[in-house]
Amino acid sequence: MNPEIVKQQFLQAVEDQLQNNQPPETRQTLDRLKDLGYSESDAKLLIAQCIAVEFFHTVKDNQPYNNDRFINNLHHLPEFPQDE
Fold first, then answer.
1. Which candidate, 84, 77, 82, 1, places its Cα nearest to that of 45?
2. Maximum distance among all alpha carbons in the chain?
3. Which of 18, 40, 53, 66 could form a disulfide with 81 if both were Cys (CB 3.0 to 4.6 A apart)?
4. CA 25 – CA 23 distance, rounded (Å)
5. Is residue 83 pLDDT above 90, yes or no?
6. CA 37 to chain centre
7. N-term to C-term CA, the chain
8. What is the CA radius of gyration of the chain?
9. How many other CB atoms are found less than 10 A from the CB of residue 84?
10. Residue 3 to residues 10, 34, 51, 78: CA-CA distances in angstroms?
């Protein structure tokens, strides 16, 4: 598995969420992080980490996507996303 390809896939998921405004918290988080001084690309990388947490829970733990955890992790950025 190529880490750069995986990173690009998560970033594409961020772009898809922004384009579809689904969930709206992704756009709100991007704007908030930019207001805090993060570049757009760095803010998207932080958001991608939240998507990665959800992806790995679905694969590793065979759990369904947890929207509440995802939104909670978005709200706490730039802190590292929590697995709980």
1. 77
2. 36
3. 53
4. 5
5. no
6. 18
7. 26
8. 12
9. 8
10. 11, 26, 15, 22
Pairwise CA distance, residues 54 & 56, whole Å: 5
The tens digit of pLDDT for each residue in 6-63 reads: 999 999 999 999 999 999 999 999 999 999 999 999 999 999 999 999 999 889 889 8
Query: Residue 69 corresponds to which amino acid?
Result: R
The single-letter code of the amino acid at 53 is V
Q: Please answer whether residues 67 and 25 qualify as being in contact, where contact means their C-beta atoms are separated by less than 8 angstroms.
A: no
Give the number of residues written for the chain. Answer: 84
And the tokens for 15?
């772009």
